[in-house]
Structure formats: structure tokens, C-alpha cells
Amino acid sequence: MMARPKRVAHVVINVTDLERARRFYCEGLGMSETGALDGQMLFLYFGEQAEAPHPFYHDVGLYKVDQAAPEDFRKCSGVSHVALLMNTAEDVDAATQRLREQGFNVLKGPAVHKEDGYRYTYVEDPDRNVLELVAPTEATQHL
Fold first, then answer.
1. Do 57 and 96 fall within a single domain?
2. What is the pTM of this model?
3. Nearest to 16 by CA among 60, 59, 63, 73
4. 89 and 62 within one domain
5. How are strands ordered across the β-sheet holding 130-135?
6. Same-domain pairing of 56 and 104
7. Confidence band of 132 (pLDDT split at 50, 70, 90)
């Protein structure tokens, strides 16, 4: 049997302003902050802060960089987007509405993918990193 990864352990996203990014991920998406490192990194968790397995445990890390991505970065190699699984299609809609109300850039959605029936929204964080909020629907029960 080939040795292979069993899942994604975490994702680290480069940002130019940690506080602005923290507001998006914590206040906009509801993540919990589990730690910070020397003004250079924040560690975020999908669960409640008190439930994290240990301090600095993270599903998403935010890493401070000095330079923003170039305008044409989506035409270069790299990560296209990170998909975050929501519990329900209604949660996708509610999160989309909250992010819009908070002034974040919703690129597309909420809508349903034609190819698989999942409810989705694409949204940019303050540094234009793209996140997809996605959830199963009744149509996905038949896949």
C-alpha cells in the first residue's frame, strides 16, 4: 500500500493585514482564534475556542506578508480557492448575507452547482483570496 496523506491538516493563507483578515474569518465566517505568534501569524479553528485540542491548534492559519498579490494573480499557478463545507444550504445563504452586510466581496452565489447539486457561494477575503462556502442539498442525496 502506498503511503499517502489522509486529509488536509490545515491551510495557511497569506494576508497583508492580520486584524482586517481576523475580522473576515472570525466575525464574517465565525471561526475562533486559538493563538497568535509575534504579530506574524494568527491561528483559527472551526469549532469553539475552548474545544480546540490545544493552544495554536488551527484549521486555517493567517500569515502576514508585506506585499499584496498582483492584480493578475488568478492567471498564475497557485491555489484557485479553498472550499469550506457548511452544514446546510441555508447556512451558505445566511453566511453569504452576513458577509455582504459586512461589506465583503461576494463574487458569485448563492447558487447551485450544475455538475453536483451543491449549494455554493464564492467570496473574497480582504486580500482577494477566494473561499467557496459549500453545502449538500437534496439533489446531492442521489449522487
1. no
2. 0.90
3. 63
4. no
5. 82-85, 130-135, 119-124, 106-112
6. no
7. very high
